[in-house]
Design brief:
377 residues, alpha/beta, seven-stranded parallel beta sheet, three-stranded mixed beta sheet, 12 helices, 14 strands, 40% helix, globular, binds nicotinamide-adenine-dinucleotide, binds thymidine-5'-diphosphate
Length: 377
């Protein structure tokens, strides 16, 4: 496989996947296709943008003719599809944009790939359409274990258990889809279209569902970078509800490594859950972030605690996500490489050391830069 199209490569996770592939596979031509919405930022890829095996194309995945053109022009034989609208709060305000990009965009990409691959003598041989999805499609788990043990209780040992009165303790690959937010509903819909293209046309597809990611280059509307930046500027930290919701956090480079493994070794038409068995209540993770930022900035312990501000809860706020990723570990040998303490330390340090990156975003400079660069195109 030589020509790989990565969509959404200017975003958070996509930029880590592009970097990994460009560095690790000098024989592959990596085409990064991204619309550069508010969430896309080419500064995320400064270190690899001049590599000979890398090309950037600005395009909208919902533009079917453009997808046909790009896939044909670059003779694409593998697609790793990350482009999406990704923020739950935005989806609550504007569900239509999510349906357009996540559902219609994925469909346009599938259709364009189908037409091109079916026109080749070898058809689908050696081809792959890998769709990156989220654990949020499975809905929400309960907070309290039936025996009264509060989450986080995610360990490999307790995973895979079920309880009659309680249902599932973790999301597995067999968990039924039950999305609640417009974001997760749009991702669920796109997952169904991907599987339908396998079942109907025989396209070699793979879907993975990953838990919350954290790490460098995440847009500062998401919890961790937003709070690091707000602490630095002594701005309030808006905690939704009581801060009791639980998320399962994975370091972004571990996700990128999993994507690499699954792209090359995953079974066609299969699904893999990706997660690090690392559940945290929001309020607990917020306290870790405050402690780490204060320590690295040389503030006294507890200095930024007063910034915590409980605000009205998110509409339909899912209580708990927890991924059982043992199938991926068992079948393909992937394991997360970083302990959470190490990952969060690296992450906080990165945001504090890269204040220019953050300031460019929060001042809107980078969007103006693209407007200028692409004027008239
Ligand atoms: P992100 O919002 O940081 O990046 C999304 C990228 O897609 C941006 O570069 C944006 O410009 C691009 N994009 C948006 N609409 C587009 C369009 N119409 N055409 C072309 N490009 C477009 O998102 P992320 O957090 O990096 O997530 C990437 C993927 O991983 C998404 O599919 C998301 O659902 C999935 N995912 C994310 C997480 C997480 O914790 N962030 C967890 C599991 C799965
Ligand atoms: P987020 O980073 O938006 O990811 P997701 O909604 O996809 O899980 O939010 C993570 C958790 O943090 C989620 O339970 C909502 C909560 N949250 C806050 O309490 N305050 C905030 O300002 C944000 C952005 C999120």
């Amino acid at each position: 496989m030589r020509n790989i199209l990565i969509t959404g490569g200017a975003g958070f996770i996509g930029s880590h996947v592009v970097r990994l592939f460009v560095n690790k596979y000098p024989d592959y031509h990596i085409v990064n296709l991204d619309k550069l919405t508010y969430a896309g930022n080419l500064a995320n890829l400064k270190d690899i943008e001049t590599r000979p095996n890398y090309t950037f194309v600005r395009a909208d995945i919902a533009d079917l003719d453009e997808m046909r053109r790009v896939i044909r022009e670059y003779e694409i034989d593998g697609i790793i599809h990350l482009a999406a609208e990704s923020h739950v709060d935005r989806s609550i305000k504007d569900p239509f944009t999510f349906a357009r990009t996540n559902v219609m965009g994925t469909l346009a990409l599938l259709q364009a790939a189908k037409e091109y691959w079916e026109s080749l003598p070898e058809r689908y041989e050696g081809k792959r359409f890998y769709h990156i999805s989220t654990d949020e499609v499975y809905g929400a788990l309960e907070l309290t274990h039936p025996e009264g043990v509060d989450a986080p209780f995610s360990t490999k040992a307790s995973s895979g258990q079920k309880h009659e009165a309680y249902g599932e303790l973790f999301f597995t690959e067999e968990t039924k889809y039950n999305p609640h937010s417009p974001y997760s509903a749009s991702k669920a819909s796109s997952d169904h279209f991907v599987r339908a293209y396998h079942d109907t046309y025989g396209m070699p597809t793979i879907v993975t569902n990953c838990s919350n990611n954290y790490g460098p280059y995440q847009f500062p509307e998401k919890l961790i970078p937003l709070f690091i930046n707000n602490i630095r500027h002594r701005k309030p930290l808006p905690v939704y509800g009581k801060g009791e919701n639980v998320r399962d956090w994975l370091y972004v480079e571990d996700h990128a490594r999993a994507i690499d493994t699954i792209f090359h070794e995953g079974r066609v038409a299969d699904t893999y859950n990706i997660g690090g068995f690392n559940e945290w209540k929001n309020i607990d993770i917020i306290r870790v972030i405050i402690r780490t930022v204060d320590r690295l900035l040389g503030n006294p312990e507890g200095y930024s605690d007063e910034l915590i501000t409980f605000v009205t809860d998110r509409l339909g706020h899912d209580m708990r996500y927890a991924i059982d990723s043992r199938k991926l570990q068992r079948e393909l040998g992937w394991e997360p490489s970083l302990q959470f303490e190490e990952g969060i330390e690296k992450t906080v340090r990165w945001y504090l050391d890269n204040q220019e990156w953050m300031d460019n975003i929060t001042s809107g400079d980078y969007e103006r830069y693209y407007e200028e660069m692409y004027k008239g195109r």
